[in-house]
Methionine ABC transporter ATP-binding protein
Amino acid sequence: MSPLIEFRGVTKSFGGPPVLDGIDLTVEAGEVFAVIGHSGAGKSTLVRLVNALEKVTSGSVLVDGVDLTTLSERGLREVRLGIGMVFQQFNLLRSRTVFGNIAYPLRVAGWAKADRERRVTELLHFVGLADKAWQYPDQLSGGQKQRVGIARALATNPRVLLADEATSALDPETTAEVLRLLKRVNTEFGVTIVVITHEMEVVREIADRVAVLESGRVVEHGTLHEVFTAPRERTTKRFVETVLRARPDADGLAQLRERHPGTLVTAQVRDGSRVGAVLSDAGRHGVRFEVVHGGVKELGAASFGSLTLELVGADAGVVAVVAGLRAVTEVEELG
Ligand SMILES: Nc1ncnc2c1ncn2[C@@H]1O[C@H](COP(=O)(O)OP(=O)(O)OP(=O)(O)O)[C@@H](O)[C@H]1O
């Protein structure tokens, strides 16, 4: 892979204190890169720098090796042609049909009528809306509108798709559908995707790598696996916990204790961590176990999660099982 988008020491201010402060990030060609952060962290500003809707205050943004600060307005227009954008509120033209919306950027780019029709038809099939070509945006559901938005963004064959909170206006099921479509855009067309979101579930579903933005700074970044399984920063840990409640909180623990007087431990579960093998051996130590909290989710090609277990048996047996678990994964005894 090679860098397609690079932020080098980027600072952006609108006159007051910086909204982005010393951003160094690289998005590789062909990946899905997510930027997660709370409202006001600077996410939208970060993507607007990529298609030069905003200009850096200092530092530089490179797209395909070209420093945007060196380009004329004409040069920037050319770069923008290679970048598609998908919005939270879809931004469709209400007065145009689905077909007309998808064809619009092709008109602007001067495509001939026959080429436009071929391309739009192709895209309508790709996003599964061939039967809606002559409907108007107001006749569509939110998920359908976003599929039109994605088709329109892809019309001119961009190399990069910027999706700014593209699923934030959608319910969870529709969100999953739209994310699957974005993933297909990435795998079938090789389009590099930058996803801006405040939802860790979106990151889990789609991203290869993720950066966590807080008050204009990247506080943590890494592969999906790194960030989910070993988050370092408080903000990141909180985001991860929104996807998977790693261990019971204080109230939950108090309730669990009432029902489960045995030893409570939380064990991390990953592919190949052999937690199951250790537990199936617990009987040999005279220990029974019960899963009382937790969950396991897919993370790219792997699984991750945590299980809180009640272990019941003689002290020596419980100690042996906990030692067995510790030999294969991280274990926390809940006090
Ligand atoms: N054109 C502008 N002029 C002045 N301040 C701006 C401008 N655009 C953004 N800001 C400020 O920059 C900060 C970051 O905004 P930004 O929209 O990038 O954050 P965000 O993480 O995308 O948040 P949200 O999800 O709420 O949009 C905010 O404090 C915002 O008020």
User: Anything to note?
Assistant: The mean pLDDT is 92. Residues 128 and 243 are 29 Å apart (CA to CA).
